Structures are given as C-alpha cells and as structure tokens.
Amino acid sequence: MDDFVSTVETRISERPVNGTTESSNGRYEIAWSLDRTSDVGRALPAAVRRLREAEVESPQLDAAVLLAHVLGVTKTWVYAHPTRQLTEAEIGRYEALVRRRMRNEPVAYLVGHKSFYGLDITVDPRVLIPRPETEMLVERALAEIQWVLQDGRRPVVADIGTGSGAIAVAIACNAREATVYAVDISDAALAVAEQNIWRYGLVEQVHLLPGHLLEALPEPADVILANLPYVATDALAKLPPQVRDYEPLLALDGGPDGLRVIATLLGQLATPKGRGKLRPGGRAYLEIGSDQGDALRALARELLPGASVEIQVDYAALDRVAVIEL
Questions:
Q1: How many Å apart are CA 143 and CA 222, to the nearest integer?
Q2: What is the pTM of this model?
Q3: Which domains are seen in the chain, by residue range?
Q4: Contacts by 143-152, CB closer than 8 A, 24 or more apart
Q5: Residue 179 pairs with which residues in a beta bridge?
Q6: Residues 102-117: tens digit of each pLDDT
Q7: Is 21 exposed, middle or buried (0-12, 13-18, 19+ CB in 10 A)?
Q8: N or C: fewer beta carbons within 10 Å in the chain?
C-alpha cells in the first residue's frame, strides 16, 4: 500500500492567500493525507516527496523539522526512530503543517521559532524572521560594548526597529552589563519582542519602547543598531513567495529606492536632538541590501556631512552593514 491516501488539488480562482490574490495558475487548496497506520519512516519520505513536487526549496530539511516539531523531538531523533508509530493526532498535525508549507508558508512561522545567534527566538507573522546575515550587527555591537566597558562606562545599546527583539535579546544575553533599548513603531511586533525578553529573563535589562526610530530613546546610546526595511517597492513582487506573501510588509518595504526609512533615521541623526541620541565616539550600524553600499554612502554623506561612513561586507563579500560615526 502506498504511504498516502490521496493528494487532491482543487482550484479556487483568485482565492486570497495571506493577503495576496496574485497567481498565474490560480490558487490551490491542497488536501494531502497520510495513511492512518503511518510511522516515522513512511511519513517523512511522503512529506519530502510532496514538498519537492511543490518546489519547496529544502524539502528534506523542512519535512524533518516539521515532523520533529509535531513529535517534540530533535531532527536526529526523527531519523533514528523510523519505526515509531504516529498517533492519529500526530498524523493530523503533520498533514496540516506540510500542506501549509506546500503553500510556501515559512517553516519558522509553522513551528513558531527561529534560531538566531545561538538563541531560539519566538516568531510569528507579526514580525520578520531573523536572518543569519543580521548576526553581523550583534557581533559588531558586542565588540563596541567591550570598548565601552574598558573605558569604565555602562554600555547603552539601541536596537531600532526591533521586530521580534532578536538583536536586542542576543546582545543582552551576551553582554549582561549593557542596557538595551528595543524600539519599534509596531505594537504587534513589540508584543512578540516582549515574549522573547521574558523567555530569556531580560525584563530588567531590555526596555521596550514604542516609537518612530530614534525619537523614543531616553538617553544617548553608545551603539545604535538598525535592521530597517531596505527592499525597494518595485522589487517586492520579485521576492520569494514565502517572504512576499507571508512576512510583514512594514518590515520589508523600503520605498522607491529601498532607503526611505534609513534616510529618515539618518535625517534624525542630522538634527541636534537626533545627534544627541548617539554618544560622542559612538557608532550606528545599519543593515543594508547587498547592492546598496554606494547609494548608502552617498546618502549618509549628503545628510551627515563630515561623518565617517564605512561599508562592511558579509561572508559572501556582499554589502551588508553601513557603519556611521558622527
């Protein structure tokens, strides 16, 4: 007997999916069912096959992660126990998750968390999913914090556009001496960040602030970090569907050139009040797109004449972080 009962795709013309109705082939409601006697060794390859047919980028990994999530175990455990029988409830949960992944819903949203800088960060569709590239901001901030500590001062770090709070939490967990302010304009995002702050016992160290960029900061920071929207509006439609159709537009859309929100932050730094948000000798680290280095450098020099501007590349030698020192 095959390891599944049926795979049925019923076309629903222009059916909205997570806020979008765009589809060259219409939208599909996927009904995929495992045999009710399935064990791990049969369920896993069945899911891999369906995800591969749906052109999911990493079908083997995703199928294993989802099954491990359903069973409350590790991926290693899944592979080591192929004869483990699945209960009816487990089969139902796994089917539902695989169907959703076939529709390109991100795995991080399906399981409710994402690894970032060695931490397990809670995420859901209210926030952007943390990327490995963003760990560069954490690394740079931690290095700056050491210089501040050597100077005998209490480090103050501001995470602007905190989203899930991943950056703020990672810094606080690795630099207990630092005071961290996590700012976001989205109350929904701050609610997710609050979950992560409580999860790691950081409520006395990380302070959540609703507000627009630098305006909410109550004191000057030694380090300002910002992973702001930097995707050009016209490029949004070209993003992978799991990003375009599911992650929050507010965290992606950087305006016509991708630098609109970043330009606003630099404009704030150009004012006497905004300049007072960064301590003398402090630095701002801004994540940027892989081809935005030259444009960011020109923008910073226009808005902040005399400022030191450096573009740092990631491990793939792509533009990734702009460092600004006033």
A1: 12
A2: 0.89
A3: 4-103 (1.10.8.10), 113-325 (3.40.50.150)
A4: 144/222, 144/223, 144/282, 144/283, 145/171, 145/175, 145/177, 145/178, 145/222, 145/223, 148/222, 149/177
A5: 156
A6: 999 999 999 999 999 9
A7: exposed
A8: N
